[in-house]
């Protein structure tokens, strides 16, 4: 637990880097090959790195939190992680979409 913050930070950074690569590729392919509009591609470009960082940080932090609360991380981790990442992903996606669309002068 002493190095929990360092572990969570490293995982979040690696998730962000991986998400930036994946988000860039998916945004480029969706724009160039699939013909998706530029504002939707921008939403993809910003959302995937954020979600990857959130998922990686959460996955690395949850076992430390469970142990601190006296719970067994192997029992709690999978259902809690799935629910948290799903909710965080949906909220992040809609907030980023709203900001990007507003930047392009579009209203949701």
TrEMBL record:
InterPro entries in alphabetical order: SLC41_membr_dom, SLC41_membr_dom_sf
UniProt entry tagged with the keyword Transmembrane: yes
SUPFAM superfamilies, sorted: MgtE membrane domain-like
Keywords (A to Z) from UniProt: Magnesium, Membrane, Transmembrane, Transmembrane helix, Transport
One Pfam family recorded for the sequence: MgtE
Gene3D superfamilies tied to this protein: SLC41 divalent cation transporters, integral membrane domain (1.10.357.20)
Membrane topology qualifier: Multi-pass membrane protein
Molecular function GO terms recorded: monoatomic cation transmembrane transporter activity
Domain (SLC41A/MgtE integral membrane): residue spans on this chain: 2-96
Protein family: Belongs to the SLC41A transporter family.
Protein name listed in UniProt: SLC41A/MgtE integral membrane domain-containing protein
